[in-house]
Every structure is written in structure tokens, then in C-alpha cells.
Amino acid sequence: MFSTLNKEVKTNQKDITDLQNKCKLYEMYFKRNSLIFHGIPEDGSGSVLDAVLPIINNALKVPCVSSDVDSVYRLRGQVDHQGKQGQQSIRINFTSNNKRNDIFGAKKMLKNSGITVYEDLTRDQYELYKSAKKKYGYRMVWTVGGRIYVNEAFGPCRVLPQENYNTIQPNLEKQLYNTIK
To answer: What is the pTM of this model?
Structure first.
């Protein structure tokens, strides 16, 4: 009787793990057309879209009209140590991945403007991204297409999943770099 229950528990645990992995993949799929803009001040007068489109069109020099945007809204800001509400980021869901990629590729034009553009990562991806930035340095880690890359002496490589993160070795990273070229 106990062996049957143990088998059922193991089967259920495997099913749960499979479902969790599928949920993560779906979340990544739904975020593929999204970007996060941070540093756009709230003026309180117009819509969020009216605040974002001039930045995309003028500062980034990427033509974008309201029909290219599926949805746009402000995210809840972080509360600082004094209990004050921080500046809210803006999530923009684009109708096409090509438009999103054009805008994300032009984000360098916002340098020194106080506005930053990030990919919309899942919680697990974001935690891995933060860990990699802490370990390798802010300028040595970036994301493209939801993948996290690290630049070391021999060139960029894709970061492994979280469970393998602490065991990354330089020669393993070099092998990864060669496999994703």
C-alpha cells in the first residue's frame, strides 16, 4: 500500500513540475512583445500612451503609432525605506515582435536621458539577471530575447538556468558561447 502511494506521489510531483515549466514557458511567450520603460515622468494630464509615443518617435527615432501598441499601463512603483511611492515604470505590449525589437535595439539613444528600457522578464529570469549582475558586474550582463548574457574575457555567453548558476565555470561558458553562435 505504501509503495503504491509513494509511486503516486512521485508521479504527481513530476506532473506538478511539468505544469510549472509549461506555465513559465507560457509566461515567457506572452511577454515576448513587451518592454518596460522606466524614468518617464507622470504629468497627470494625458494618457500613458501620449507620454510614451513621443519618446519612441523622437528620442529613439523609431516610427510608432497607437495601432502598433496593444496595451500600455503604469506598473505599481516600489515603496522606499521612508514609505514613499517610487516612480512607476510603464509596460508596453506591442502588436508585433518586430516593432518591439526595433525599439529595444534603439534604446542606446536614450543614454544619459534618465529613461531606460528593459525587456519584460519573468520573475525567475529577473532573479537570474539580478544575480548575474551582482556576480559579474552591471556592464557585463544584458538580455536579448529573454536570454541573459554575460561578457567575460573571451566573449558573450548565455547564462545557465538558476539551479546551475553557482557552478558556472569559465571553460563551460566558453563552450556555451561556441554552441549559440
So the answer is: 0.74
